[in-house]
Amino acid sequence: MPDTVPKVLVVEDDRMNSYFFELTLQKKGRLATTATDDVEDILRLARAKEVDLILLDVTLTNSRYQGRDVDGVEIAKLLKSDPATRSIPILLATAHALKGDRENLLKLSGAEDYVSKPITDAQQFVDKVKSMLRAAGKIEPPRG
Known about the structure:
Blueprint: E1 7-11, H1 15-27, E2 32-35, H2 39-47, E3 53-57, E4 64-65, E5 68-69, H3 72-81, E6 90-94, H4 101-109, E7 113-116, H5 122-135
Parallel strand pairs: 1-2, 1-3, 3-6, 6-7
Antiparallel strand pairs: 4-5
């Protein structure tokens, strides 16, 4: 198991949401975070193995890649199609929480899981992130 604090990359274009995610993961989860919605930065950090999990907003309004607008689903597809980044767990975050959306978004993106915004239970959110990190071998199982 790694001795370092796992790092979560927060990909969110709303500054308040990004701040909430980072603060919650740092304070409640005792995890390291970095944030960007720049696709080149996302790919660079992922390829350099500088992140252990990516929290990815589905509806990005400012993200562009190779001259075109891209959303979180497209970014997830890019990451999952690249052998250098496909093993990094992706947790989608979206306000689209209608019945069937979860399964559809996971199938389209290749992401491992999904959270609905707004986050109403910060501890449950942190527990989900830690569970995904544990499954990826990035943190130890809880003791006891």
